[in-house]
């Protein structure tokens, strides 16, 4: 069975990006995938802040990522990039943690002005960790209703998200062949 780790990079558990991940998790489970959500809010903050590469508390989270077939990483846009706490976690991950893994980047933001944050900030980070980054999905506030059962209310976003999940599934299937 295919296992997908969904990594929420928001320091706020009730963030839009985390809610989008929860919707994606449900879609994946409905298709028979095994899912596992990791939120940066679960991580030992002291280890992140001090750059503790030897952290024993981080090992279970690292192992969950290593055991995954694919990864979906979501973050709100902060200063034209992903969150600092997510970067702190990525800094402590093994250099090749995403090797032979397809990674789908998801970003949420207040406006379309930061659309390129996926291409100029997120994808290079994924590539540095040896992952194969998909195109990704950027969702702006006006395309979401935080009080709706499924936060995304824009049909075009749903279509892009479905296409990217299909690309993730196909890429994982190819990785398993090789």
TrEMBL record:
InterPro entries, per database record: Flavoprotein-like_sf, FMN_Rdtase-like_dom, NAD(P)H-dep_FMN_reductase, NADPH-dep_FMN_reduc_SsuE
MF annotations from Gene Ontology: FMN reductase [NAD(P)H] activity
Matches recorded under SUPFAM superfamilies: Flavoproteins
Key words, A-Z: Flavoprotein, FMN, Oxidoreductase
Coiled coil regions, renumbered to chain: none
BP GO annotations: alkanesulfonate catabolic process
Listed transmembrane segments: none
Protein name: FMN reductase (NADPH)
Domain NADPH-dependent FMN reductase-like, first and last residues per copy: 2-142
Species, as recorded: Lysinibacillus alkalisoli
């Amino acid at each position: 069975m295919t296992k997908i780790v969904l990594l929420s990079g928001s320091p706020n558990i009730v963030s839009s990006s985390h809610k989008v991940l929860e919707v994606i998790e449900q879609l994946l489970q409905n298709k028979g995938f095994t899912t596992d959500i990791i939120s940066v809010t679960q991580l030992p903050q002291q280890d992140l802040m001090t750059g503790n590469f030897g952290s024993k508390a981080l090992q279970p989270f690292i192992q969950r990522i290593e055991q995954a077939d694919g990864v979906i990483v979501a973050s709100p846009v902060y200063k034209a990039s992903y969150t600092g706490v997510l970067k702190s976690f990525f800094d402590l991950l093994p250099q090749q943690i995403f090797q032979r893994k397809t990674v789908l980047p998801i970003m949420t933001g207040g406006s379309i002005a930061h659309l390129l944050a996926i291409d100029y900030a997120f994808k290079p980070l994924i590539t540095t960790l040896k992952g194969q980054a998909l195109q990704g999905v950027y969702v702006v506030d006006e395309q979401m209703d935080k009080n709706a059962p499924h936060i995304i209310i824009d049909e075009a976003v749903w279509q892009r998200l479905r296409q990217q999940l299909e690309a993730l599934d196909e890429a994982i299937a190819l990785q398993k062949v090789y």
